[in-house]
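User: Hi! I'm a student and our assignment asks us to look at how structure tokens line up with a sequence. Could you show me two examples?

Assistant: Happy to help. In each example below, the sequence comes first and the structure tokens follow. Example one:
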Amino acid sequence: MISKIKGEFLHFKTMPHGMRVLLITNMIYSMVLPIIEVFVSAYIMRSQNDPSLVLKYQLAVFTGIPITFIVNGYLLNRIKVAHLYSLGMLLSGVSMFIMMFLDNLDLTAIIISGFLMGLSYGFFWSNRDFLALETTNDENRNYYYGLETFFYTISAIIIPALVGALFFYTNEFNWFGGGEVISYRLLTVLVFVLTIISTVIIHRGNFKNPKLKKFIYFKFDQLWNKLLVLSALKGLAQGYLVTVPAILILKLVGNEEALSTVLSISGIIAAITLYLLGRFTKPNHRIYIFAIAYIIFFIGAFIHAYLFSALGVIIFILSKVLYQPLHDISYFPIQLKVIDVLSEKENISEFSYILNHEFGLYIGRIIGIGLFLMLAVYASDIIALRYSLIIIGIVQLLSIPLAKHIINKSN
């Protein structure tokens, strides 16, 4: 076993230096994402008991992201990409600080902190995608995203369990005065520490900024337009996956401790499977992984809608834990391969495609959240929580033949 681990470490060391630095940075920051994505929504739900406020927070987040992508494009002509990447990570802590340390969490505070979190994601994802594109090639991208999703999956298992323990001991032994608010504030401090460590590590890489004389375009090759449709289908579920699970668990399962247990229950087997997929699969296997991801999501959404109970929520969360990394390990290499091909064909900067892709995601996110809010307003919160996910799951199955067509055209 030790020799196998050593062999994998030696294989990691054969990768380009920039790719290794980026992976280590993302490994540290991956411990922040479960806190941001799950427990911020749980905090809003705990404070206000209003699912629509959680969705409004997420709308503010998603609105901030594409705006920041544009701002980031201008700043890349003046500021190092590593600095902007660091800014994105640090802003996530600032956003949490505003929300967790306010005595009165009203709609204005929720919108402001959500927009700041959107700025954080915008700087993080726009520069992360560019650096991933620049430090990898089509042959090692399965490995890159396999290892990265391995980190994210491990964090999605371990961090919620540790957070659950923090909530338990803070309340049980009256640490720092006890109570959920203290626990959430301690989480904010932890986020700040982890983002600072990530910032230090990313500056160990020697990354070059893209040359961006012009980066905003409105007309692209037909192949890119098809990828934008694929990105919109991906965006449909994104708003749900960072908000609805927390709402469902608090309504149907229990409290934050239960939330942590459910998110950790998938175990370490899923993470090891993802690492092996990234280590040994080839570009021609991506469509199979992609299809499996969407089928798993659909099955989980269907069971949740059918049962609409604590068991149904647990099964859906398990499907989510499997769907997200399987999707990422296949979707991102497909996206970057298309960018590789078209940036050379159209003589357009790679960042232009990254920026444009974000607006495809944004359209899908707005449609998805709009569906939830429409069902909540014209039917009820219960109808929205029960049936919106299955509607999304059915529509997303269209992604499978579209992704197959895009892969064939980009080869």
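Example two works the same way, sequence first and then tokens:
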Amino acid sequence: MFPRFLTSIVSWRSVAVLALIACWLQITSVVLSWQLRQRQLVSASEAAVVEARRQASRGHRAPPVRHRDFHLGPKISDDHQTILSRIAHWSVLDSSGEFRVCVGVLQRVGESLEWMEQGEADVRLGITLVTQCSLARLHRLPPLTAHWQGPVSIAVFVLSGEVQAAVQTFHLLRKCYPSVKENVTFSLVFPLNSPTSPHITPTADTTPCHQIFSAMHQDNYSFNGVQYPNNLLRNIARKATTTSHMMVTDIDMTPNSGLHESFVSFAKKNGLFSEKSSEEKTVWVVAAYEVKEGAGMPQTKQHLLDMKEGGLARPFYQELCLKCQRFTDYPAWEKKKSGGTEGVSTMYEVLWQDPWEPFYIASTKIPLYDERFRQYGFNRISQVCELHVAGYRFLVLDSAFVVHEGFKTVDGFHSTKDAEQEKNRILFRQFKTELKMKYPESSRRCY
């Protein structure tokens, strides 16, 4: 009896083991089948994205792509659907995880596939105007391109419900202004979740050019509780450039006419476009002024100086923060008068001092802006401070300037300006401490 009992136990255990093995094999088969299906889906998705990009680069229209962040209404043309498809495929999260960004969603005509095939060397020799704004301030773009007359890269901030309106506005600007179509590359930044502002979406096929912005009324820095990410926008616009040099400005700062061509000539003459340029760690400071609203834009340095003598122009931020700009040394800059016909040239070098925040032309390889700075205060100065600590030189250019239309006054700012500035002041102190660790060999500090 005992041997039979052992035999029964062994048989039962064998059956149990075999059952477990069969169950394990079945589960493994299901898992492997699921993984294979997922890989096939991913491969198909990647292939679709690659094909969409290839078709877009060749000028073909991609099929509409449904995405939870966008509503593709029946009145949107194929061109709009192509752009929205790119946004749906290409947009990624920023480092904070709060915004989605799409770099170069609509490129300038000069950056078409045929032009790129001429060679990367041709692409890199030049300078791009890098700027940023909200959707409601895009009306400043056409006059900006008229003055710059060269490549422009702009990052536009919208609320998540304004993406469609932004894309249609981009197309309208390209249709109505040849300089925009020829020279401007658009990038887009929008928060993951945000309410829609009361913008009225224009219809690209019927809206007259003079009414593109008629329905847009939005105060600067006012986005229903969403903080305006100015430094993120600057970095995104920078990433969309294809030239070796850039000038970073705000949308309301207009360069003097001919500055693009003048600096390109200056750069070629002095070998700045060479990979072995001796000025690799140099930025070229551009004087900044503000002119009385309605006084018109000065075309040359002499014209600007005449306006200043007549009380129609003054150094930028003279009333708000003179020390933020005075280290440019405006008396020295103004002392040398010229008609601006001989092009730009270097005048003198300035050693950075706190809180100087000049506008400048530089290589696209310089340090990025710290994206923690949002809203008002310390967003530009933090980056200039890092340039100083990193060992960059600041050379002031003659006959080169940018102008803000309208005098900056204390009562011209939004109500939360002071609170935002104080918050960013605390962040700036932390930022300066971090620079000591980032550049341990540097003897320079932001004092």
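Here is something you could point out in your write-up. The chain has two domains: 91-251, 253-447.
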